[in-house]
Amino acid sequence: RYVNEIVETIPDSEFDEFRHHRGATSYHPKMMLKIILYAYTQSVFSGRRIEKLLHDSIRMMWLAQDQ
Questions:
Q1: Could you give phi then psi for residue 14, rounded to 5 degrees?
Q2: Domain ranges of the chain
Q3: What integer pLDDT is reported at residue 23 of this predicted model?
Q4: What is the annotated signal peptide range for this record (predicted)?
Q5: Rounded to whole angstroms, how far apart are CA atoms 39 and 43?
Q6: Predicted confidence (pLDDT) per residue in 19-67, tens digit
Q7: H helix and E strand count, the chain
Q8: What is the largest distance, in Å, between two alpha-carbon atoms of the chain?
Q9: Integer Rg of the chain from CA
Q10: pTM of the entire structure?
Q11: In angstroms, rounded to a whole number, what is the distance separating the alpha carbons of residues 7 and 10?
């Protein structure tokens, strides 16, 4: 929950340069930052383990907002 509160304090305008509106739809950079920061707080650094957490952890699912 703390990760969500901290990231939500960052204005959306800070993420504008990371958003691209061409090609396939992408994930919002703010949501990706939440996922990575939460994984790091759980001592998970591997992309595959982060993906596994997204499928198994209710907290990660909540942060990802079913995206």
A1: -70, -20
A2: 1-9+27-67
A3: 72
A4: none
A5: 6
A6: 777 777 778 888 999 999 999 999 999 999 999 999 999 999 998 986 6
A7: 4, 0
A8: 34
A9: 12
A10: 0.81
A11: 6
